[in-house]
Each structure stands twice: as C-alpha cells, then as structure tokens.
Design a protein that fits this description.
The structure is a single chain. With 158 residues, the protein is mostly helical. The chain has one domain: Orthogonal Bundle (N-utilizing Substance Protein B Homolog, Chain A), CATH 1.10.940.10. Helices cover 74% and strands 0% of the residues.
Length: 158
C-alpha cells in the first residue's frame, strides 16, 4: 500500500495546524487581556513560558495578540454596524473571536477571506456558546463584503 500524502501536502497540513494553534492561543491570550487588563507583552511572555508552543506559529500568535489589542477600537468600529446589540452586550468570547476575524480580514490580506472567516467560526465552535459560531459567521461575512469587496465578488462570480 502506498501513502497518498506527499511531503508538500504534509507540510501544508502542518502549517495549517500551526496557524490554527496560534489562533487558539491568541484567543485565550486576548480573552485574558480583555478581562484582566494585563499588559499584552506580559501575556505574550507568559503564554510562551506556560504553554508548549512547539507546534504553533508563534509569530502569528504574537501578531494577532499585539495587532488585535493595539487596533481594538478600529476593529470594533468596522463590524459594529452589523451587530444586533451593543458591543458591551456581546459575550467576551464572541467579541474576541470577532476581533481576531476582523483583524485577519483587514490586516492579513494574504489570508483568503473565506479562510479568515472559517478559522473564526471554528474558534467560536470550540470556545463560544452553542450558536455563537453562526453569529460570528454572519458578522464576518458582512464585514468581508465591505473590506474585501473585490475578493468576495471574484469568488461569487465563479
């Protein structure tokens, strides 16, 4: 029997898993930052010491942690028009997932918009309330139509 996976596909799967791990750690770190108000650089250092990050894209983890924290207001303002409630009424996990997704849509243009949305939906499924992934999906989809208009139109015209 032969193995159908090639070294290239194994590398891609490994990179995907490392990025997913980075997003998961970033969500937890941002949640801690949001609730405790601890400085981001301290949380970054703490996570690197307290967690096994050998299979994590650590650069992505730090980029998300620092980028989301430093652009919180900008991110919130971009998806706020699509919310059906006030920011203060959002569950803290949902809010953090929305911020990560918005950051990726707005500042990581090399990530396809569908990947950015899907990864946020997966975070919401793992860490959020029962139906929060649907809410996150709807908000980020509307945001993508605004901030990635050309990419969204190109995908829908195929």
């Amino acid at each position: 029997m032969s193995d159908n996976t090639t070294p290239k596909s194994n590398k891609k799967a490994s990179l995907t898993a490392q990025r997913r791990s980075a997003r998961s750690f970033a969500l937890q770190a941002l949640y801690q930052w949001q609730l405790a108000g601890q400085p981001v650089n301290e949380i970054d250092a703490q996570f690197r010491v307290d967690n096994d990050m050998r299979n994590t894209d650590v650069r992505l983890f730090s980029e998300l942690l620092i980028g989301v924290a430093s652009r919180k207001s900008e991110l919130d303002e971009r998806y706020k028009p699509f919310l059906d409630r006030e920011l203060s009424e959002l569950d803290p996990v949902e809010l953090t997932v929305l911020r990560i997704g918005a950051y990726e849509l707005m500042h990581r243009l090399e990530v396809p918009y569908r990947v950015a949305i899907n990864e946020s939906v997966e975070l919401a499924k793992v860490f959020g309330a029962t139906e929060s992934h649907r809410y996150v999906n709807g908000i980020l989809d509307k945001l993508a139509q605004r901030v990635r208009m050309a990419e969204v139109k190109a995908k829908s015209s195929r």
